[in-house]
Design brief:
The chain has 468 residues and is of the alpha+beta class. Among the domains are: 1-38 and 80-106 and 168-203 and 450-468, no CATH class; 268-440, Transferase(Phosphotransferase), domain 1, CATH 1.10.510.10. Helix content is 32%, strand content 28%. Helix 8 (257-275) runs antiparallel to helix 12. The chain starts with 18 loop residues before the first strand and ends with a strand.
């Protein structure tokens, strides 16, 4: 943990100051989220090079037109400040991050919950962002290559749009006037100056407290302190002790498994509204599920019309019919929801596994493993003795069978055996959580940035710091 206090300045200074720290949001654990921006080295290099070209030792000696162009055009581009129409008809100056929003903010809460964890131990900094469990890159599906071969115009146009979208990255945008945080797209061709373009979206702030009774685990060389995350005073006291520790420490969290599954049911409700419009998300993965303090967000949907094939897929989470280029429907999303629930419960799908070669354009292809799922095994380790009639081995068996039947139906190779849509999935999951709730907790390292001391109203507290 960093020893020096972090000075915070107004977001309006992002246009002029080469090195500063601003606050842009609240991190998932409720601590202030800070962004450190440093362009001093780039600016120094720029002016040294220009002065060298003109044979002067100081930029004040440059011709007025040259100095003005460098200071107000080239240097402004390095600072990453542009005008963006965040709301229709209103253009505002915004800072555009150099790193992508995902690189800055770290993995989503669901990605971190599903990632393998390491044993806690003292460290000067918070643990680094954990790796994803799976390859979450999007690839073209079989239908795209076949459509290109046959010249099917409508599918080809959809494929071309998906290619264009993959050549953009979403960056963090911070308004200079009010400090409001957004994300915006930056095309591959604009990546140097980072010129943003629509769609602009307000930054979605995830919340650990959305999962219920989350426990903060603060580890130092002296001892490990556990405190309910909702008890902000107790957590702050524990962090302060870590800050006084000679070797620093780390902050992690334990999240109730049942609470995460309950929020997954809420997410399915939000997804059902998309299905009601005859659209399929078609890219559900841990990276595209955001758990806020209110309704979970349906994020980065491909919005594939029901009955149409999807030209792209995240193969690690896509349903078999999507990978092989068949038309999709709401049950395609149910497969991904079921896979998420299976991972959260530690279930193991089983059945015959085959390899499918997917053409990805030109002479390239990718081999994808497809499991013809016959069922899901769920160990009774997570049975907590609650519900099911009063405890005992028979109740544990009933708990196990109920979860296996539900998850197995969601992951069925034959989509006709799956729940009909997100609403049916949500109803089935809530029924299980009421009759057969799982026990235990999932650990999350808290990869939201470096844990640093912060002075607020004369009191030393903590914040999360990420650097751009």
């Amino acid at each position: 943990m960093q020893r020096g206090l972090v000075p915070i300045v107004a977001c309006s200074e992002l246009a002029d100051a080469p090195s500063l720290v601003v606050r842009f949001a609240a991190a998932p654990d409720g601590l202030p989220w800070l962004l450190r921006v440093d362009r001093s080295k780039e600016l120094q290099t720029l002016f040294r090079a220009v002065c060298s070209v003109f044979g002067v030792s100081d930029r004040a000696e440059l011709p007025a037109r040259v100095r003005d162009a460098v200071e107000h055009n080239v240097a402004a581009g390095l600072m990453g400040v542009h005008d963006a129409e965040l709301t229709p008809g209103t253009s505002r100056a915004v800072y555009v991050s150099r790193r992508t929003a995902r690189e800055l903010l770290g993995p989503t809460l669901l990605q971190q919950l599903l990632a393998p964890t390491r044993a806690p131990g003292p460290s000067r900094r918070s643990p680094p962002s954990p790796p994803s469990l799976d390859d979450e890159s999007m690839e073209v599906s079989t239908v795209a290559a076949i459509a290109l071969l046959r010249g099917e115009d409508e599918v080809v146009k959809t494929f071309e749009r998906s290619v264009a979208e993959r050549k953009t990255t979403r960056r963090l945008l911070i308004g200079l006037e009010r400090g409001q945080a957004y994300t915006g797209a930056v095309a591959d061709a604009s990546r140097v100056l980072r010129v943003p373009r629509a769609p602009y979206r307000p930054l979605v702030e995830e919340r650990l407290t959305a999962f219920g009774d989350v426990v903060a685990v603060i580890t130092s060389t002296a001892k490990t302190v556990r405190a309910p995350l909702r008890d902000r005073e107790a957590v702050a006291d524990a962090i302060a002790r870590v800050q006084r520790d000679r070797y620093g420490g780390q902050l992690g969290f334990e999240v109730p498994r049942a609470g995460v599954l309950a929020r997954l049911a809420d997410f399915a409700d939000a997804l059902a509204r998309l299905h009601a419009r005859e659209l399929v998300h078609a890219d559900l993965s841990p990276a595209n599920v955001l758990f806020t303090g209110a309704t979970p967000e349906v994020f980065d949907s491909l919005d594939v019309p029901v009955g149409m094939p999807s030209t792209t897929a995240t193969f690690s989470w896509a349903a078999p019919e999507q990978i092989i280029g068949q038309p999709v429907d709401p049950r395609t999303d149910v497969f991904a929801l079921g896979k998420l629930a299976t991972r959260l419960l530690g279930g193991v799908p089983f059945g015959e596994q085959s390899h499918y070669v997917v053409p990805t354009g030109g002479s390239a292809s990718r081999t994808v493993e497809i499991l013809k799922c016959e069922g899901v095994f769920v160990d009774s380790d997570h049975y907590g003795g609650r519900g099911g009639g009063g405890g005992g081995g028979g109740d544990a068996r009933a708990w196990q069978v109920a979860w296996q039947e539900f998850l197995g139906s969601c992951l069925a190779y034959d989509r006709g055996a799956r729940p009909m849509g997100a609403s049916a999935f949500a109803d089935g999951l809530r029924s299980l959580l009421e009759r057969h709730p799982p026990a235990g907790a999932l650990s999350i390292a808290g990869g939201f940035g470096e844990l640093v001391p912060l002075e607020r109203d004369g009191t030393i507290t903590a914040a999360r710091l990420c650097s751009d």
